[in-house]
Amino acid sequence: MRSGSLNLAGAMLVVLAALAGCGGPQPRAPSPTPIDAGADAAPVDAAPPDPVDPATAELLAALREQRDRACACTDAACGEDAEALAVQWGLDHPDVVRAARPTPDQQRELAALIEAAEACLERWHEDEHGHRHGP
């Protein structure tokens, strides 16, 4: 395995560890108990869903783009470039990673995107015998 793949794996582990430390979305304060205003009163709606967390949305978009770039590669040079860009994005955006508050479903999606990108990049890595795994 190349040292670059260790850099990507390390960078992605940092992302996952930071996200795991987030603990998901912050609990919402309980809604006040509605006062019964009689039959003519307007219905009380349930609390609206949480708005999309901008940092989580940005992180998901970046990881989707990185996965797509990695999986579109047809040679080792492209794979190395995709890997370098993914690592650089993480280095350039630590604030986004720290600010992200993904839901459990989003955490699973983030992990799946990272795994997919790594699987695509693995095609271009040399094994311990110097063999490439690409087509």
Summarize the structure.
This protein has 135 residues and is an all-alpha fold. Helix content is 60%, strand content 0%.
> Whole-number radius of gyration?
21 Å
- Indicate the mean pLDDT: 74
Order of helices and strands: HHHHH
Q: Can you tell me the residue ranges where pLDDT is under 50 for at least 5 consecutive residues? A: 20-37, 41-50
Count of β-strands: 0
Structural class: mainly alpha
Largest sheet: none
> What is the number of helices?
5
Distance between the termini: 17 Å
Question: Proportion of β residues?
Answer: under 5%
- The quaternary organization reads as single chain
How would you describe the shape? elongated
Percent helix, as a range, is 55-70%
Your description of this structure?
The chain has 135 residues and is an all-alpha fold. It has a domain at 3-22 and 53-122. Helix content is 60%, strand content 0%. Helix 1 (3-22) packs parallel to helix 3 (76-92) and helix 1 runs antiparallel to helix 5 (104-122). Mean pLDDT is 74; it is low at 20-37 and 41-50.
Defining traits:
mainly alpha, 60% helix, elongated, 135 residues
What's the SSE blueprint?
Layout: H1 3-22, H2 54-72, H3 76-92, H4 94-99, H5 104-122
